[in-house]
Amino acid sequence: MSEINDQKFVYDFTEGNKDLKDLLGGKGANLAEMTNLGLPVPPGFTITTEACKVYLESGSEPVELRDEVTAHLDALERQMGKKLGQADDPLLVSVRSGAKFSMPGMMDTVLNIGLSDVSVEGLAAQADNARFAWDSYRRLIQMFGKTVLDVDGELFEDALDEAKAAKGVTSDTDLDADDLKKLVEHFKKIVRTATGRDFPQDPREQMDLAIEAVFNSWNTDRAKLYRRQERIPGDLGTAVNVCSMVFGNLGPDSGTGVAFTRDPASGHAGVYGDYLQNAQGEDVVAGIRNTVPLAELESIDKKSYDQLMQIMNTLETHYKDLCDIEFTIERGQLWMLQTRVGKRTAGAAFRIATQLVDQGLIDEAEALQRVNGAQLAQLMFPKFDEHAKVEQIGRGIAASPGAAVGKAVFDSYTAVKWSRSGEKVILIRRETNPDDLDGMIAAEGILTSRGGKTSHAAVVARGMGKTCVCGAEELEVDTKRRRMTTASGVVIEEGDVVSIDGSTGKVYVGEVPVVPSPVVEYFEGRMHAGADDADELVQAVHRIMAYADRVRRLRVRANADNAEDASRARRFGAQGIGLCRTEHMFLGERRQYVERLILADTDEEREESLKALLPLQKQDFVELFEAMDGLPVTVRLLDPPLHEFLPDITELSVRVALAEARKEPHENDLRLLQAVHRLHEQNPMLGLRGVRLGLVIPGLFTMQVRAIAEAAAQRIDAKGDPRVEVMIPLVGTVQELELVREEAEEVIAEVQAQTGIELKLALGTMIELPRAAVTAGQIAEAAEFFSFGTNDLTQTVWGFSRDDVEASFFTAYLEKGIFGVSPFETIDKDGVGALVRSAVQAGRATRPDIKLGVCGEHGGDPESVHFFHEVGLDYVSCSPFRIPVARLEAGRAAAEAKGSDSR
């Protein structure tokens, strides 16, 4: 990385490079990189993220900033041979945001800075095009008014619509210079009325205010919401790029566009992007005017098209990745305004990664880093059934794949409101803008009647992994009347169910049934990646998963409670069972046996209940060990909160009261009610459960251990290979574990003596209480393995119940930034994670060969898997569906660690 002067706040495009994203932001770093490559980039300079941080922390810009900006502006004016906003042939600049991580549409941009009542005439004369000059001026007032002066943007939109209506036209390009002059005066009146001040005529004041507005846009609600959604840190700040203007709105030989070096939706090679003649860049991403496909540029301007294709190849080879490019053509001259590694769909990510390996641009280790578990999970979602009877009502551009079904809503507020009420919704708009972000997050999918693959809706949806269909022109969207009308006259009212296919662009009325994803069929073994007819995507997933499995250190097990789940988990690549919750084996008809056991008054009653349970438990374990033959199976002894196995106290009280009123026999119910009252707990999750239950109810754990041991012996006798680990739950002190371990060893010895079969059952415990984590060194003296129960450990460390708090204050905590993400979704590294780390160290210090794993649902969370790799666990365990994700992330964690070591 280049040396950085801490006191320097402004860099010319010739001074930076792509590795300075922390300082120059993604846009500034890449503009510098393209300048270094000799590509046609308009001259300009970048104000660093450090300047933004000073501004955000202190409320004012660094004292040195104004002088540095002045010096760079002077140099730019000398290079261009014109001055900012001068009366004749004025220099105009754009002021654009550019954070380290791409945040499309979330922060502010102002174009055409330097135009005024005086300089607009000079621009018109220089360009010999009055319409162009006044169009640029009205754009400046509109963008500046909304972005810098906080004027309601709809006021400008309404005025523009009125001007078009008065002229009898539908496009802004049909307004002539006189129309636009009148519109400029109207816009200036809007500014004066809304703000109490005139639109600033001083070009330097325009630029300084725009720079400040970009700094402020870092902390707008929509930017903060996007950062939370994408897990982007809030303290990075944004850079500001000041770039000399080039104009795509000079006439039919000018235009602007966005291009991708590959299709961001599918990953396929080809010519992908959008182009709009006689327009400025914001027109393309806003989706206000429908673009033409990039391929049509070849017939419009072949010279620029050929040059663009060459530059795209240069950039993809240089960046070794899919590149997203913004460009402008000014009277036949091509200019590059931005490049970045492009956002892509999950399927495209896997395809592109393997394509680049085949091209020799990256190796397999880098390909593994180009995909992630969240993308793999998206590929496992169902898709629409191609053979279902459907009613198609339209078709747009397949902008972001997936099969989304929901009720039609026409604004973000309704999308959020209905979603919070449990409804699945499809957000339908003419085009989206950054203010729609919260509705886009809440919706199952997004449908727009305007825009293309590079519109705001498409770019944001791809980044979020949200299904999106754009530019469905045959659908007329009326947001005020909350309805959509099809070309054939079918009316979709708000609340009607629609289905959108982001892979084909098709839109259907009603709910279309779904079928399993081919990726799931591959993991299930129903599709072989080597087969001739195997899906290209499946081939890519297979190759990357195979490499992840070769390099990962963490093993991946499943949380499974029966043979069916275990078999599926094994097909998904599970290397054992990390958690078999035996309390799930006692639901349904068996619940009565546990109820009798808990309520038993005598040893005889207790023994009778245990005797009835033993063969049922044994058969469960026989089937489970057979399904996982040759792989470890961790069986957790009974850990139910007691209330789960007792009748509801209110329901039982009513039953007893009715029986007494009717003078009906109710001795058994009365006895049951007395017992329920005796055992009632205010907080069952912190009451008589786990090891405490095993110590208080004689014979309960020994019955389970006997069932496990006898099942293992039976499998061995049948030439099987059971590898059983018995786990004691909710241990807080080593003495609890020692008592249960002693009883278990006696039972195992008895079964060995009775069967003549040697049994090697490992005995260990869950670490799910803070005290267990703190005293892990002591507990390891009696435990052959630890499995971290991070669900309960999170509850007990934070002091809240998941079932209660997620619905009460979690939303507020996420919105206020107290949580970046729910601690139940991704492990809290500083709190819960610190206990895990110390327990690992203490456990290994006592017992170097202790086996360590995690069985909370964090075991399937991508970010958490990296943490578990780092702290040195041996395995993670998660639900069967999350196993491929955990395998992939375990491979990525190992490759990442190896890469860090080599550096």
Automatic annotation (TrEMBL):
It catalyses: pyruvate + phosphate + ATP = phosphoenolpyruvate + AMP + diphosphate + H(+). InterPro entries: ATP_grasp_subdomain_1, PEP-util_enz_mobile_dom, PEP_util_AS, PEP_util_C, Phosphohistidine_dom_sf, PPDK_AMP/ATP-bd, Pyruvate_phosphate_dikinase, Pyrv/PenolPyrv_kinase-like_dom. Residues 22-58, 64-290, 296-347 form the Pyruvate phosphate dikinase AMP/ATP-binding domain. It comes from the Bacteria. It holds the Pfam family PEP-utilizers_C. Mg(2+) binds at residues 768, 792. The active site is at 456 (tele-phosphohistidine intermediate), 855 (proton donor). The keyword ATP-binding applies. Signal peptide: none annotated. Keywords: ATP-binding, Kinase, Magnesium, Metal-binding, Nucleotide-binding, Pyruvate, Transferase. Residues 539-890 form the PEP-utilising enzyme C-terminal domain. Residues 423-505 form the PEP-utilising enzyme mobile domain. Substrate binds at residues 581, 636, 768, 789-792. GO terms for molecular function: ATP binding; kinase activity; metal ion binding; pyruvate, phosphate dikinase activity. It is an enzyme of class 2 (transferase). Its EC number is 2.7.9.1. Its cofactor is Mg(2+). Belongs to the PEP-utilizing enzyme family. This is Pyruvate, phosphate dikinase. It comes from Streptomyces showdoensis.
